[in-house]
Amino acid sequence: MGLDIRWPIGLMFTLIGALLAVYGAVIQSDHAISLGININLIWGLVLVGFGVFMLVGASKGKKNPPSA
Amino acid sequence: MQPIQLQWIDYTILVAYVAFVLGIGWALSRYMKTSADFLTSARSIPTWVTGLAFISANLGALELVGMAASGAKYGISTAHFYWVGAIPAMIFLAVFMMPFYYGSKARSVPEYLKMRFDERVRALNSVAFAVMTIFASGISMNALAKLLNQLLGWDYNVALWVCSGVVLLYVLKGGLTSAIYTEVLQFFMIVLGFAPVVYLGLKDVGGWHKMNHSLEAVAVNPAALHLKDAGTTYAANAWTSAWQPVLAGPAHNPMGVDWFAMIFGLGFVLSFGYWCTNFLVVQRAMAAKNMTAARNTPLVAAVPKMFFPFLVIVPGMIAAALMTMPDKNYRIPPPPISQESYTKAVAAVQSASPTDSAAAVTAVGTALGKKVDADRITLLVAANATAKLSDAQIKQGLYNSVAENDYDSVILSLVKKYCPAGLLGLALTALLASFMSGMAGNVTAFNTVFTYDLYQAYFAPGKTDKHYFWAGKVTTIAGIVLSIGAAYFASMYNNAMDIIQLVFGFVNAPLFATFLLGMFWKRTTGTGAFLGLFGGIASSALFHALTSVASNLDATGHVINGMKGGYLKVVTIFPSEMAQNFWLAAFAFIVCFVLTLVISLATKSQKTDADLKGLVYSLTPKTVDQSQSWIQRPAVIGVILLIVCVIMNWYFW
Predict the structure, then answer these.
(1) Cβ–Cβ of B422/A37 closer than 8 Å?
(2) B76 Cβ contact list (under 8 Å, min separation 6)
(3) Most buried of A25, B8, B59, B484, CB within 10 angstroms?
(4) How far apart are CA B221 and CA B233, in angstroms?
(5) Tell me: the pLDDT tens digits for B337-393?
(6) Is B170 helix (H, G, I), strand (E, B) or coil?
(7) Digit-coded pLDDT (tens) for B181-216
(8) End-to-end distance of chain B based on CA atoms, in angstroms?
(9) Which residues of chain A make contact with B31, given a CB cutoff of 8 A?
């Protein structure tokens, strides 16, 4: 199929990750529930990392062959 | 489970996910030109994608919920469902069976059966499969709608129709490819959504070793956590060793199974029967772009499968460990109790006399309609008598006194305990995603089997491809509508649903014998396969009617619930339902195997050797993997995976 799945995966996790990280860094103030760890910030960054990894793979990867 | 309040950030994540899923369907719709594009992805998808979809189609939300529940109930032994009950079968499928499925150019598993045997076997398998997928998807959607209702307070009907509508939209647009792509998305959602919960849980209990140490206390006295009846005790490693308690015998492990049932019943019959013949998973491999990709699909899937126990079972173990630590203020939630019952029970506590604790315990137990912990109730009544407690405090005390666990809420209770807004949205979206992709998986398997194996075969043969393309789309809509019907059915007739699942258990148990003989013994005839399968199904029903489990017998030895077997006569008593289930599968397999063998020898094959080329092992040229380097060959990868699997078993011995 003509759509490389890495594009939507990459975009989605970058977006959600960025959202989480910003929320954790700027808006959320109480971290008691997650044992004092700013888990939103940390995990948001992990998701962004994963998302970017997928996007890089998709842009470097050869275009999917047109469906025969 | 008490309701959860979601924040805007949680809803944003949820909406983003749904938007991406719909976007994928929309983006794929322009590639959908033929029935093959829609129903089989025109065999065009790369291996890692089919591999992750293969595993994801199996990792439904109910599995996620159920494995965490079993983790609490049985500990690390639950991993046998992965290391014994999945990995070997997946490797067998890749190395030995995929060449026939993919090489035969069959579009579905029932179609393979038609090529190998005859129409009768196909009809039996395709009808059973079609009905089963609808019910499976209905059960899953019912669970989802109920969850959204209890947890977020959404209306059951709205939740059911909206979620089904989303699935319908993207499957209708992008067909099987849409389902496969969203399964991959779901895979990453689940892993990335639940990993932080496991991490926080482990950190909270003080790490892996501390958790195991706490579980040793659980094993010695599981009744303290209401995991087992009072007086039950196991060796200290019953929750933390995978094999030693099983080898010690059914009385020495919380599952109540013996090693033979575990290895032959689960590891061979049930596992191979599911992984190697269920079109829902096999379809993902059949969508791969070439033979090597198809064979590597289950192998790619085996890698995450092997490590899933740490994601799905460990939360259950964490929950059990947390319950031993009073300062953590955690319990596995009790079964749902209505507000009305709580109100009555609060009144019972307030009016109870601290001097007559037995009467208080009975009154509170009756009001709640559940088993209660007598000591805790006595303490609660005494505390209330000394200093008047508020209604909310009494309610909390009652919540902690219920001596029953609702294991299915383990995973969500942990999500709730550790996830702040944001992460909560991610974890819930992951759960929602797996429910929806479970429905999509079932519906895409259903529409292929119905369109090709029933509609094209019996109702409208010889039409144009455009006709079947449209038939596929109509079937998809019908599949979703039927699933919604099945969901309502499940919500209204819980017992009827149990019977249906029981019957499917009977139908599936002997299936692998038919495939094994069909693929590896060319002498197997259509009549042998058909009658053998019927005999196998009948024998499993009979086995169930003649056996039961110890907990299902009253003091006089009479069966309490016929659903748990023994409604004709109790010939054998098993220590647990799991053991009964494993033995039933083993028995049905052997009956089907022997019957198929004997009847095949007594009947004449309708197929010539030329007909069977590509369908039977001995008549098919061996797949040549020479073009790849040795490390990429399925057999080599399979052996490596098997070694890793053995190491895991050994490590958790």
Answers:
(1) no
(2) B239, B240, B241, B242, B309, B313, B317, B652
(3) B59
(4) 5
(5) 888 999 999 988 888 888 888 888 888 888 888 888 888 888 888 888 888 888 888
(6) helix
(7) 999 999 999 999 999 999 999 999 999 999 999 999
(8) 35
(9) 1-3, 67
The Cα–Cα gap between B158 and B180 comes to 26
Q: Is the pLDDT score of B484 beyond 50?
A: yes
Q: Which amino acid would we find at residue B167?
A: V
Q: Which two tokens stand for residue B116?
A: 């190998």
Cβ–Cβ contact A34 with B under 8 A: yes
Q: Alpha helices, DSSP H only, in B30-118?
A: 35-40, 47-58, 61-74, 80-83, 87-92, 98-103, 109-116
Residue A13 near chain B (CB below 8 Å): yes
Give ipTM to 2 decimals.
0.91
Residue type for position B263: I
- Is B420 in the A-facing interface, judged by CB distances under 8 Å? yes
Domains and CATH numbers, chain B: 8-324+413-492+622-651 (1.20.1730.10), 339-404 (no CATH)
CA distance B73 to B31: 47
What would you report as the CA-atom Rg of chain B, rounded to the nearest whole angstrom?
Answer: 26
Q: Which of B378, B384, B399, B377 is nearest to B350 (CA)?
A: B384
Q: What is the pTM of this model?
A: 0.90
Helix (H, G, I), strand (E, B) or coil at B462: coil
CA atoms in the 13 A half-sphere facing the CB of B211: 25
B573 beta partners: B548
3 state DSSP class of B117 = coil
Which of B18-27, B409-418, B545-554 shows the lowest per-residue confidence on average (mean pLDDT)?
B545-554
Question: What whole-number distance in Å separates Cα of residue B11 and Cα of residue B7?
Answer: 7
Question: Reduced to 3 states, what is the DSSP secondary structure of residue B374?
Answer: helix
**Residue B307's CB: how many other CB atoms inside 10 A?**
12
Joined together, the tokens standing for residue B455 give: 């509609």
Both tokens of B19, joined, read 């938007």
Tell which residue, B132, B126, B129, B114, has the closest CA to residue B518. Answer: B114
